[in-house]
Amino acid sequence: MTTCPRHPALDSWGDHDRDDPFPLFAQVRSAAPVHEVRLADGHAAWLVLGHEEARAALNDPRLSKDMNAALARSGEVVAEGLPGPALARHMLAVDPPDHTRLRRLAMPAFSKRRVAALEPRVRSLVGELLAVLQDRGRADRPVDLVSGFAFPLPFTVICELLGVPEPDRADLGRWFRTLLAPYPGPQPPGEAVAASDAIVGYLTALLARKRARPGEDVVTDLVVAADRDGALTEQEMLSTIFQLVVAGHDTTTSLLGNATVALLRHPRQRDAVVADPGLLPAAIEECLRFDPPVPHSTFRYTTEDVAIGGTVIPAFAQVVVSLAAANRDPARFRDAEAFDIRRAERNHIAMGHGIHHCLGAPLARMQARIALGALHGRFPRMRLAVEPQELRWGHGDGLVLRGLSELPVLLGAPHTGREAFSR
């Protein structure tokens, strides 16, 4: 087994600076692409940081996503955490053939045709949210882009896709933000437990409601598949809905926030995109590479000894892939620490790789294209209302998810002509 140089952060990985973790990622990656670590919660794991090594790990069937099955074979007791077993049987937590079955059932909601059909609704929502922001942000009054724009847009879109009634969305959104907020120590606080219980109760009731009164939505589709073909269990339906809500809004919220910060901190590149909307798709890919909303993959577990990057990871070990570190690997990307919307290399893994590549990636990219285009096109003089070092990435679970708690900006005078990014 290769001996990896130790760094103090490897003894509490996940307890690092959430606001600017990239210097640490670079330092640890430069020592070795694979490290044995101890996570902040005390569990042993293996960390993969190199780009080539990360792609290999994400595409290796010997790295299982089924925690219960993998750890049961090792004889280790699986500790229950939030959100709990009722919501733990989704496509990110199982292997084929169950993964194939669950993903196939959810795929129609994220097809190219379905995503394209959503564009008019997304444009309408963006226009409504920006009009409210413009009213709130007159003169030198800052507005919070997270609560006022980056969160409500994707949360509304995923709720409409799933068939969550509008009156229920405020409570559901509050429960999810409470559940996904980081907390110190190994034990979740009472409010997180209560939020998890509330989500389970609500989604259970939603399934019953759709069974009694079907609609044209994803939850109804799941209920029909379960009742007609026995294609899903009740746990799998609850888990799938939960995972689609999280993946369908939280990562897009963080993408919109992180991308806006990156553009505002690189004003010449932002001005270039405002002047030429054709640069926007490439800019979004660079934002994903530079500051991904998911800095680490969800956990995997080796079913046998696996050699990655010259290191043998033993069987039954927990593995976490640092997507953020891999996306800044100088062995793959020229001038990897620089933000460059004209970058030629596009082979980032911010959306994952292999069979677990993000199912909702086309929807996230479409929302980002429309939302960022309209936002920066309407407010070309927008700037941060605080110094960059005052921004706090306090939303997320401390390892897998990373997003801004708030993003205070001064909108400046709005563009008086046609919004440059509206297309």
Overall geometry comes to: globular
> Main sheet: which strands, in order across?
1-2-8-5-3
Looking at the overall shape, the CATH architecture is: Orthogonal Bundle
Number of helices: 15
Highlighted features:
single chain, 47% helix, 10 strands, 15 helices, 423 residues, 3-stranded antiparallel beta sheet, disordered C terminus, 5-stranded mixed beta sheet, alpha+beta, Cytochrome p450
Notes on the structure:
The protein has 423 residues and is α+β, with helices and mostly antiparallel strands. It has one domain (8-410): Orthogonal Bundle (Cytochrome p450), CATH 1.10.630. 47% of the residues lie in helices and 8% in strands. It is built from 15 helices and ten strands. The chain has helices spanning 22-31, 51-58, 67-74, 98-106, 112-136, 145-150, 152-162, 169-180, 190-212, 218-229, 234-264, 267-275, 280-290, 323-326, 361-378, and strands at residues 34-38, 44-48, 63-64, 143-144, 300-302, 306-308, 311-313, 318-321, 383-384, 408-410. The strands form three sheets. A five-stranded mixed beta sheet has the order 1-2-8-5-3, with helices on both faces. A three-stranded antiparallel beta sheet has the order 4-10-9. Helix 5 runs antiparallel to helix 7 (152-162) and helix 9 (190-212) packs across helix 11 (234-264). The protein is globular and about 65 Å long. The termini are far apart.
